């Protein structure tokens, strides 16, 4: 009996420690030392809490993304980045990277960090809170685009959000298996509940591969409504649809539409410029590809992949005139 009681107590503790959609978030304002910006006023906006470490490369890699989101949403969203490393380590990092970070940064205790991340897969990790401090969503920062777009469109009903989260988890469980029927069912149910769900839409490409049915990609993406998508989600999908190694699984028409939509929403986003340049390159418009890649590199001059892409486009541009004019070093007649 004692063992059973102990087990029940342990389960209760785990249940309390786990923070789910609809739960009240622990107090993260009292006792926090604000390194950049001031304590957020929950009533004024939706709040994103990001937990991170300066020593984590993936955390540092999310800084441009979070900065972009803060700029795009303005005062509708307050991004708050919380760190529990030694204060001198955080201060030194902020001294070196202050200009890159346009959102609030705070120093919290290790105990509070552990409380939030009790059942999280690690850092970086985010929680989206409503104006009362209740948890609306929890995810990796790279999934914030779609989650924020959904919340700001008014989807704040806890039960509906729990359903979407459950459907995403169900899809995750089927991915990587050979059960295409289960995957298709999971995708269909997820997109019915959340039409702009990036995870569901991107999974379509995987199912098409499994089924060897490239027509499925066109069938799904021809029906996508841009208004259902966050700019970041549209950009990721565009990059997927234009760059598949098997041309039969590419959908350039949808890629152009999605990439242009993302850029219209955020004209100064270097990631979207980079994707649009790739789309232009794949469509054979090298001049546009070079122009947009240069714009992306100007906004983010330290990005090595942007530099590599630009050099490649310029190299192809130099080759193209000879090929088009028939002055290529290869004599086509000799190949017949």
Keywords:
single chain, 336 residues, alpha/beta, globular, disordered N terminus
Descriptive report:
The radius of gyration is 23 Å and the shape is globular. Among the domains are: 16-152, Glutaredoxin; 157-240. It is an alpha/beta fold and 336 residues long. Strands 1-4-3-2-5-6 form a 6-stranded mixed beta sheet. The protein has helices spanning 2-17, 57-61, 63-73, 87-97, 110-116, 144-152, 158-174, 180-193, 198-211, 215-221, 231-242, 252-265, 270-282, 286-299, 304-325, 332-335; strands at 33-36, 46-51, 77-83, 104-107, 125-129, 135-139.
Distance between the termini: 86 Å
CATH topology of the domain at 16-152: Glutaredoxin
Q: Unreliable stretches, pLDDT < 50, 5 or more residues?
A: 1-17
CATH superfamily of the domain at 16-152: Glutaredoxin
List the total number of helices.
16
Q: State the secondary-structure class.
A: alpha/beta
Q: Tell me the radius of gyration.
A: 23 Å
Mean pLDDT across every amino acid position: 90
What is the helix/strand order?
Answer: HEEHHEHEHEEHHHHHHHHHHH
Biggest sheet character: 6 strands, mixed
The CATH C-level name of the domain at 16-152 is Alpha Beta
User: Strand order of the main beta sheet, please?
Assistant: 1-4-3-2-5-6
CATH architecture of the domain at 16-152: 3-Layer(aba) Sandwich
* Proportion of beta-strand residues: 5-15%
The global form is globular
Helical fraction equals 55-70%
- Tell me the number of strands: 6
């Amino acid at each position: 009996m004692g063992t059973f009681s102990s087990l029940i107590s342990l389960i209760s503790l785990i249940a309390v420690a786990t923070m789910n959609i609809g739960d009240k978030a622990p107090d993260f304002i009292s006792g926090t030392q604000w390194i950049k910006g001031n304590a957020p006023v929950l009533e004024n906006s939706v709040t994103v809490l990001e937990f991170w470490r300066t020593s984590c490369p993936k955390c540092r890699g999310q800084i441009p993304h979070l900065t972009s989101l803060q700029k795009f949403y303005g005062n509708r969203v307050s991004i708050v980045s919380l760190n529990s490393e030694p204060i001198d380590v955080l201060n030194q990092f902020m001294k070196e990277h202050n200009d890159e970070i346009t959102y609030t940064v705070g120093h919290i205790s290790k105990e509070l960090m552990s409380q939030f991340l009790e059942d999280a897969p690690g850092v970086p990790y985010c929680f989206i809170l409503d104006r009362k401090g209740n948890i609306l969503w929890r995810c990796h920062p790279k999934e914030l685009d779609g989650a924020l777009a959904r919340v700001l469109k008014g989807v704040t009903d806890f039960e509906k959000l729990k359903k979407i989260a459950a459907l995403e988890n169900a899809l995750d469980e089927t991915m990587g298996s050979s059960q295409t029927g289960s995957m298709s069912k999971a995708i269909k149910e997820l997109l019915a509940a959340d039409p702009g769900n990036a995870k569901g839409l991107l999974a379509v490409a995987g199912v098409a591969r499994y089924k060897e049915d490239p027509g499925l990609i066109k069938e799904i993406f021809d029906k996508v409504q841009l208004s259902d998508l966050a700019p970041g989600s549209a950009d990721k999908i565009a990059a997927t649809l234009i760059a598949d190694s098997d041309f039969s699984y590419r959908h350039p028409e949808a890629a152009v539409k999605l990439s242009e939509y993302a850029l219209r929403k955020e004209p100064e986003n270097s990631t979207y410029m980079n994707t649009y340049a790739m789309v232009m390159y794949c469509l054979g418009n090298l001049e546009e590809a070079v122009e947009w890649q240069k714009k992306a590199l100007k906004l983010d001059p330290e990005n090595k992949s942007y530099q590599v892409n630009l050099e490649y486009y310029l190299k192809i541009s130099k080759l193209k005139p000879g090929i088009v004019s028939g002055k290529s070093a290869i004599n086509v007649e000799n190949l017949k």
